[in-house]
C-alpha cells in the first residue's frame, strides 16, 4: 500500500476531452485558456500525482493534446457517444487494475480524489466508485475496475448512453467529497469561466 493511502501504481488517469462542447459554442473545451493555461493543463497537473500514468480521451485536436506527452485515445465507437465511450476506449487500453476519469472542463481537481474513490470502492466491495459533492453525484468523476470493459461495451452496443442506467448494472460506491466542492465546478458556459479563473488565480482553494 502506498503511503498516501491507496495503491497509486494500480491506477491510470483519463482526462475526458472527447465531447462536442455545444454549450461553449463548439470550441474544444480542453484547449480553452483559463488563468493563462489551457484547461487541460490544469487538469493534468492535478491528476498526475494521483495515478501511475495518464491518458487523454479526445476526438479532435489530437496533435494539440499529443504535445503534452501522454497517450491520446479517441473513442473506439463512432458518433460522439459521451463520456462512457471515452472510458471504454481507456478500459481497453490500460494495464492497471483501475481507471480514474475526470472531465477536461473541471480544472480544480481535488488532490485526494483518487484516495477517496478508492477507499469507497474498497469499503463497499464495489465495481466502481463515483464522487458525491454532498448534494449530488458527479458521474464523470469515476473510479472503474478494468474488468468492466466487456459489460460497458455491451451496454453501449445496445444503444444505451446514460451513465445512471449503466450504474444500475453494478455495485456502485459513492465517495464523499463534500469537503472539496470547488473541484466539481465545470466550465460548460462562458459565464462560468470567470468564476473558475478567479479561484485558480487566488490562493489555491484545494491546498
**Name of the top-level CATH class:** Alpha Beta
CATH superfamily placement: Spore Coat Polysaccharide Biosynthesis Protein SpsA, Chain A
* Overall outline: globular
CATH fold name = Spore Coat Polysaccharide Biosynthesis Protein SpsA, Chain A
Secondary structure category? alpha/beta
Order the strands across the largest sheet as they lie in space: 5-4-1-6-8-7-9
CATH architecture: Alpha-Beta Complex
Q: Assess the beta-strand content as a share of residues.
A: 15-25%
- Helices and strands, in order, run as EEEHEHEHEHEEHHEH
Structural commentary:
The two termini are 23 Å apart. The strands form 2 sheets. This protein has a 7-stranded mixed β-sheet, with helices on both faces. Strands 2-3 form a two-stranded antiparallel ribbon. It is globular and about 40 Å long. It has one domain (8-201): Spore Coat Polysaccharide Biosynthesis Protein SpsA, Chain A, CATH 3.90.550.10. It has 7 helices and 9 strands. The model has no long low-confidence stretch (mean pLDDT 90). By secondary structure, the protein is of the alpha/beta class. 29% of the residues lie in helices and 22% in strands.
